[in-house]
Amino acid sequence: MSNYLLSIVIPTRNRQLYCMRAVRQILSHGWEQVEICIQDNSDNNELEREMDSLGTAGIVYNHHPGVLSFVDNFSEAVSLAHGKYVCMIGDDDSVLPDLLPLLADMEAQQADAAIPALNFIYFWPSANPILEGGEEGVLIAHLHDEKPVAPGRCVNSREAVKRLLRRGVQDYTSLDMPRLYHGVVKRSMLEKIKEVAGNYFGGLTPDMYMATALSLVCNKVLRVQYSVTLSGICPTSGSSDSATGKHTGQLGDAPHFRGHAHYQWEEQIPAFYSVDTIWADTLFHALRDFGQDAQLRWFNRPLFTAVCVHRYPEFANLVLTHARSHGCHPFAVRRAWLSYRLAGWVAKGNGRFKAFLSGKGTRRTNSVPDLMKAEQRVQAYKGGTV
Q: Following CA atoms 270, 275, 278, 280 in sequence, which dihedral angle do they give, to the nearest 10 degrees?
């Protein structure tokens, strides 16, 4: 079948158990117009045998055992898709039933991309859980931000790129930047990106590159206030490493360089390994690939420097020296940090006030052993039965 409405794309590497469970959860919905595309960069083809055992026609599987960078693995994953729309999730994530109403809304409004909410996080069972008491699995639900299914509103994604630069490349998922990862995008937009950049992804981190590129090529983007995916965090996920401080170190330690023979690090960004520097480097690469160098004038170097100094104090001297070499005065860094903290306190207070007014807040459910149980709990939350 070549006329799929949606392709759910899953890049994976050496996490066969989680990927297989994610696929089974998607299949449980019985969606005939949805295909599942698995791009497997694992050291063996164990997952292929598992996929064959399902006997399902709506699965596209490709195994590439050689060395691939994150961006190349993601690009190969997108190349497998046949659907009119594409949604990418991780191999420990899942999708929710409200994904289909979102597609209908996009069809009705002729949208190029949609930005759903991200209000549910599932922590897989682990002997060494990130959350205390999470050995048997935990679901976190931010209910005060979750709304019923409703038509999306149009947003200005090009302006969002400028805002991201002005806020020092912080918290891009809160901005009106379309996502392929835990978002929905017309496949024609992905082909447009490839036409311009030569590949679907570039830089070092696929999430940031795609969000930037889509912001530049999409004409109509919708934002909705309900979730269509469930973010999973398994013990070996990147989110888990970030939460436990493993995403920091010397630049050469970054796994993102795997598969890049001659990568050119962005000179405007201090050369050490962290989530913030990898994101900023990739943002700059994406803007340059699309001829948007002029946008870089909006980059808030004092704020970016302040965040790096406070989050990664072991690299403070390197960061401050780099900032001074680009004309950034320490006083500007201190002022930017104070403004950033003040804005954070205000936002936190507003969030608590909204939660109070709504009568809802953040809910935690323990003893959630798998994705199926997690989705059932999410649907109960959405339906107001718990």
A: -70
Model-level pTM?
0.93
Q: In what order do the strands lie in the sheet with 153-155?
A: 59-63, 34-40, 6-12, 85-88, 184-186, 113-117, 221-227, 153-155
Tell me the CATH architecture of domain 1-386.
Alpha-Beta Complex (3.90)
The CB density around residue 212, as the number of other CB atoms within 10 Å, is 30
Are the C-beta atoms of residues 135 and 117 closer than 8 Å to each other?
A: no
Task: Please list the alpha-helical segments (H only) found in 63-174.
Answer: 70-79, 99-109, 157-166
Residue at token pair 């909705």: 224
Q: Retrieve residue 37's tokens.
A: 């595309």
- Looking at residue 24, the DSSP 8-state letter turns out to be H
Chain Cα centroid distance, residue 175: 13
Phi, psi torsion values for 112, nearest 5 degrees: -85, -25
- 3-state DSSP assignment of residue 65: coil
Q: Could you state, in order of their start, the residue ranges of all structural domains in the chain?
A: 1-386
User: What are the tens digits of pLDDT across the range 111-146?
Assistant: 999 999 999 999 999 998 989 999 999 999 999 889
